[in-house]
Amino acid sequence: MFENLSERFSSAFRSLSGRGTISESNVREALEEIRTALLEADVELGVAREFCDEVMRKATGREVTKSLKPGQELVGIVHDELVAFMGPEDSKLYLVDPGPTIIMMCGLQGSGKTTTCGKLAAYFKKAGRSCLVAAADLQRPAAVEQLQQVVEGVALHAKGSSRIAFYGEPDKCAEYGKAVHAAVGVCRRAVDKARAERFDVVILDTAGRLHVNDELMKELESVRVSVQPHQILLVVDSMTGQDAVRSAKAFHERLSVDGVILTKLDSDTRGGAAITVKKVTGAPIKFLGTGEKFDALDEFSAKRMAGRILGMGDVVALVEKAREEVSDEEAERMAEKLAKGQLTMDDFLSQMKSLRRMGPMKQLLGLLPGVGSALKDINIDDKQFDRLEGMVHSMTAEERKNLKLFNKGRVRRIAEGSGTTPAEVNRLTSQFEMVQKMTASMASGGMAGRMQAAKQMAKSGGMPAMPGMNFKGSSATVSPKARFKQRKK
Asked: Are 162 and 133 in contact (CB under 8 A)?
């Protein structure tokens, strides 16, 4: 996500290196590259032009802060302007009391609307709010059944203990076309059920089309007039670029949407919709869909999004993901073990499982400042985690606690049991042993311990990101040729 845009922005900023001031002449060239980058990212021409004009107006004649370089100064200006274009931030969904709060979902077919309804239900469940999800899309084949499966999955597997329920009338699908207001009736009865059973929220999954047309808009307007939703949320596929923005504008003109949810931001999207949709529609971006899982729905932050576009990463998002997967008690227990230098393979396995639940490794590393562009040509294969888990699971309880027990016979047995090679097992144990020594040195006390750990890191060329993982070169996997050399050694 945003890789090409980040790269082009960085190139534009580098062109200002060595300049003492930011003048119109030396900024214009950089802005030409920024404008081209925005257009390639599918940002609407008028928006790209307005963005560059604003940056030029704020940058021209500006003195460079003593502690900064001209390129860094321009980064700050562009960052602030990106925040202004995508903000102001308003990611909260306001609930009414007494309930239920009625949320009407709309969007084109294929935008991810039905999946997003399930994610929203999971979001409310985690927040301790009960939620009823109603299937009001009576046109698309099997839409009712699809939503039912999604909602039942959320009720069963999503975090939280609040009630999540589904409401649908599959028999009404046959009436579609004969009874124009069939969807309106479903929505009314769903709201009545939510009110009678005291649900906090009712989500209405309305119909979509491949393209915006008058028939669709009339149906949605009928639903809006009939049930008077408290919030209308528009689901927009960020991969469709300017088409997404045009459809969002059409929906907003007819329905006055209260917020936008951008989906598929985990894909190879160019990012134009994220920059443009707020400026064109005036409706704030509420959430970002970043994957297929129930919890892959992030509250939108213009500042954090601008940071990711400019290659600054999003450490806050990384911390939030870690907090969700690691409890305070687990963190304290691990901190005590690290302080005593008592890290074991069981602890490593537990940490690895927590890390995997946070998402794909490349996506997580991309949240670190300056790392995203470095990962562009690196293929990080998450299946390596399966191999690492296999090796640890093939060890006995005693072997996980004491690496000194390992000999050639044990290594060969572990390799055969996990479908790996003895070289891979040796690499895992040697790197893990190095991490143990570092933590023990740091735990042994004061500056001397930290200096000793630093020496060990220097000798090894830096502490590995994960024992047994190899991110060197253009691939994160061990090639067959490399394995042959390891066996030969």
From this structure: no
Cβ burial, residue 283 (10 Å; 0-12/13-18/19+)? buried
What pLDDT was estimated at residue 463?
38
Question: In terms of residues, how long is the chain?
Answer: 489
Question: Which alpha helices (H) appear in 158-232, and where do they start and end?
Answer: 182-196, 214-227
Q: What is the pTM of this model?
A: 0.66
- What's the token pair of residue 484? 């042959």
The domain over range 101-312 is classified in CATH as 3.40.50.300: yes
Residue that is written with structure tokens 């309804």 in the block: 117
> Taking the domains of the chain in order of start, what are their residue ranges?
3-86, 101-312, 323-488
Task: Please name the residue that has the structure tokens 């576009």.
Answer: 309
Cα(340)–Cα(338) distance, integer angstroms: 5
For the chain (length 489 residues), average pLDDT per consecutive 10?
Answer: 67 64 71 83 84 83 54 77 79 84 92 93 94 91 90 91 92 58 90 95 89 84 93 87 79 90 74 77 87 86 79 54 63 68 78 72 58 54 78 89 88 91 88 74 53 43 46 41 43
Q: Give residue 307's pLDDT.
A: 78
346 near 401, Cβ under 8 Å? yes
The encoded tokens of residue 355 equal: 């890390």
Rounded Cα–Cα distance for residues 481 and 489 (Å): 13
Class assignment of domain 323-488?
mainly alpha
CA-closest candidate to residue 122, choices 101, 103, 150, 100: 150
Closest CA to 203 of 291, 293, 286, 93: 93
How far is it, in rounded angstroms, from Cα 181 to Cα 177? Answer: 9
